Amino acid sequence: MNVFEAIISRRSYRGKFKDTPVPREDLVKILEAGLAAPSGCNKQTTSLIAVDDPEMLSKLKAVIDPPIAQSAPAAICVLTKRINAYRGKCFAVQDYSAAIQNMLLAIVELGYQSCWYEGHITDDDGIADMMAKILGVPEDYDLVCFLPVGIAEEEAKMPKKKSFDERAWFNSFPSS
To answer: Is 104 a domain residue?
Structure first.
């Protein structure tokens, strides 16, 4: 698979996963892809925790309400640390977003599926804080995303997308 095939093949998979473990070597490749992402002013605000221990996964899944990815055999928790960069601006959101996209593409390349769960765990209900506590994350980091990783039991469905011409143009925004 080349990068364009991975981009076109990637889906947000919310179905059940097979109980096949994800080898640690594959998790390392996924983490390396995330850490290779660009970072504003090279501040490297993104950190990652791969979770493949069934007991730890169970603890994390127990605090996610409503439940998600209950059958995933592995997951990656994405952390960010707010560090000001250029002109006092922090690029943490851009940094971790680039890292997540790299990991989602690596996940597809390796034959797995995932879904970017951010809003679900970062709402005002404190799920991300509970997950961070379980993982022993220091207070100066925020847990911002949960990526389940596993082999899909079902085919990931393609959502309806707007056409190219509705969202992409050359040289200027189209006039009405």
So the answer is: yes
